Amino acid sequence: MAPSTTEALDLFIALSRASQWVIAHADKDIRSKGLNRTEFGVLELLYHKGRQPIQQIGSKVLMSSGNITYVVDKLEKKELVRRQTCAEDRRLIYAEATEQGRKFIEDVFPSHALVIQQAVSGLTAEEQQLVSDLLKKLGKSAQESFKQGKRSEEDPT
């Protein structure tokens, strides 16, 4: 039997509130390190995945490409990131963590992970895994239905 509207709304509210508070823990920790969430996300991506085309960073950290340029500018001023033009295609510009940026992430990421661990400690490890699996399933389903909705809007037949 499909969930009722009431159950769906209850889930939406609970999911939103839980997300808000877990993110509040993460944001507070990140701000204490002198960055905002987006700067930290870009730097963490570059640290763990290596240099990335600036045009593709936005989709990986869920931001528009215009905002990524601004964030990379800020990280460059802090000497945590540098731009590098592709030798084969000068239109392609990469961002990569500097040595200082890599050291920064190495120094702060372990304690940041502990902050997140503490923020979700209201659930056991097994519950955390179950919720993670269920949220991935929910996310994929919501993404697919969103895409199908866009297709039906574009094709009025």
TrEMBL record:
One of its GO terms (molecular function) is DNA-binding transcription factor activity. GO terms for biological process: response to stress. Keywords: DNA-binding, Transcription, Transcription regulation. Residues 8-140 form the HTH marR-type domain. This is MarR family transcriptional regulator. It comes from Paenibacillus roseus.
